[in-house]
Write a structure and sequence with these properties.
This protein has 413 residues and is an all-alpha fold. The protein has a single domain, classed as Growth Hormone, Chain: A, CATH 1.20.1250.20. Helix content is 78%, strand content 0%. Helix 3 runs parallel beside helix 5, helix 4 runs antiparallel to helix 9 and helix 11 runs antiparallel to helix 16. It starts with 6 loop residues before the first helix and ends in an 8-residue tail after the last helix. InterPro entries: MFS, MFS_DHA3_Transporter, MFS_dom, MFS_trans_sf. It is a multi-pass membrane protein.
Length: 413
């Protein structure tokens, strides 16, 4: 099979492209700051989203495995759309918190489900060995979507000077994605049942969790490694927004425009470049894995590289090297998007097909628990000590955790 020409693999890619047309994403922290929220309040809003996701993470994975993965994805888009509507109308912390709850429900029904669909498709077509290549390719579509989203979001803010509108514009691609999911082959729903048996539902989840805790040591360690790394990434990645807001005054660009308009253009372009380069990295992640022969070696190396990148970003803040900070954020994104397909290959090689959505949901749930705990602490550190100290504290924490998170070859065990 030629994966570049396969129509269903292309659909998987366009699903990701449409899903990542979240025009608000490069401006979310700036939007919250414009409402007068502190970094601690922003961190707590992230926790609200992640707590919601955490509560529903495994149940939604079990639902997907037992009652249909396509249905699960379509449910997620309904909740996303309602959250966007509420973001558009909200101005106070409580209503924004409710919007985060709706978004978190959408995230729970989505996480792990589409990956399980992709892996089932590869199994059915006898190309399971191409997991890293296919996932990296579909992930590259997602990142192209993020690049397009950053440019369009920047234009909306530049023209209208209104952060709220970008939430409203984000509804359209999600309606299109809802329709696209319905065109997937029915067998990608997995083995489903039409009877909603609560006992079977709970026992299915408990069996998977028991197996993870008592038998699958490599999977357990991989899930913890993935959760900590991606948790820090998801918390830190959008700090480019307040960092650039601090640095923008020193840039001799678009001086004839108001600060908000300058910020919208520079953020939009910065994120577009970050996502396009990350897209290329994700598409070629399988080549990195092949060079190292074992996924574990490349995963350990990218972990260490990320620690140094985060520390250097902290060093550069308030130093006047704005362009260098943007370059470092680009490298930060590139390393993560090289790493993610390799991590999924490492994890998927241990999981049985019938439990993939559930186990991937457990992986996502651990990441969620980590974000819930870490996001307010990181935000409070930024409020108390500044952004520079916050980045240094994260890099130090990752160094301390490194010995506990080091992965070994599955073959060695």
């Amino acid at each position: 099979m030629n994966i570049k020409k396969d129509k269903n693999i292309k659909k998987f890619g366009f699903y990701g492209l449409l899903k990542n047309l979240k025009f608000f994403e490069p401006f979310l922290y700036i939007f919250f700051l414009s409402l007068g929220f502190s970094y601690f309040q922003i961190g707590s809003l992230i926790s609200i989203r992640e707590i919601t996701k955490n509560i529903l993470e495994v149940p939604s994975g079990i639902f997907a495995d037992n009652y249909g993965r396509k249905k699960s994805l379509q449910i997620c888009f309904v909740f996303y759309i309602f959250s966007f509507i509420l973001f558009y109308y909200s101005s106070i912390y409580l209503s924004i918190g409710l919007a985060m709850v709706l978004f978190g429900i959408g995230e729970a029904f989505r996480s792990g489900t589409h990956k399980a669909i992709i892996f089932l498709y590869l199994d059915q077509n006898n190309i399971a060995e191409k997991k890293t290549e296919v996932y990296g390719r579909t992930k590259s579509y997602s990142l192209i979507g993020s690049a397009i989203s950053a440019v369009i979001g920047g234009l909306i803010v530049f023209i209208e000077s209104n952060y709220r509108l970008i939430f409203l514009f984000s509804i359209l691609p999600y309606i299109l994605d809802f329709i696209l999911i319905s065109t997937y082959p029915d067998y990608l729903d997995g083995k489903t049942t039409n009877v909603l048996d609560l006992k079977v539902f709970l026992l299915s989840g408990l069996e998977s969790f028991k197996k993870l805790m008592l038998q699958l040591k490599d999977l357990r360690k991989g899930i913890i490694n993935s959760g900590v790394y991606d948790g820090f990434f998801k918390i830190l990645k959008d700090y480019l927004q307040p960092v650039l807001k601090l640095e923008i005054i020193s840039l001799p660009l678009l001086l004839s425009f108001a600060k908000e308009k300058r910020l919208s253009v520079l953020l939009g372009l910065s994120y577009a470049v970050i996502y396009l380069i990350s897209s290329y990295a994700s598409r070629n992640a399988f080549k990195i894995k092949n060079k190292f022969n074992e996924s574990s070696k490349s995963l350990n190396l990218t972990y260490i590289l990320t620690v140094f990148i985060i520390a250097i970003i902290g060093l550069m803040i308030n130093s006047g090297f704005t362009y260098l900070i943007i370059i470092l954020f680009i490298i930060f994104y590139v390393i993560r998007n090289l790493r993610r397909p390799i991590m999924l290959d490492y994890i998927a090689n241990i999981i049985e097909e019938k439990e993939r959505a559930t186990m991937l949901s457990i992986e996502s749930q651990f990441r969620t628990i980590f974000i819930v705990a870490a996001a307010p602490i990181i935000g409070y550190t930024a409020d108390l000590l500044g952004l520079r100290a916050m980045f240094f504290s994260v890099s130090l924490t990752m160094i301390i955790l490194r010995s506990l998170l080091k992965l070994v070859s599955i073959k060695e065990n």
